[in-house]
Amino acid sequence: MISIIDLASWLLLAAGSFFTLVGALGLLRMPDVFTRMHAASVTETLGVGFLVLGMLLQTGFSLVALKLLMLLGLFFFVSPVVTHALAQACLHERVEPTLTEDRRGRGLPTAKIDAGGSSL
Question: What's the number of domains the chain is made of?
Fold first, then answer.
């Protein structure tokens, strides 16, 4: 008989695996670096959160649980900072997002950036 904690742990691990795979698929399918960063940062943060919570339920109260909580906190603070730094580096190198037409057939506006960094 499966206990409630084991069932909850496996559900969290399955959900975390699903979101991590969706993030990996987003890296392959999205058209430009900005949408790829979005897909990776949002879904993989959620995926890692679920995976760590599932592992926390499996370990119980121990030193391993404390280490998992420290890794989770580190990941939640470092991942957005790295994504922001990567986006700023792309903007600094003048990488422009791929914009497509919306449903009404109008083109979306693009922002032009001059040498000083201000938009025109």
Answer: 1
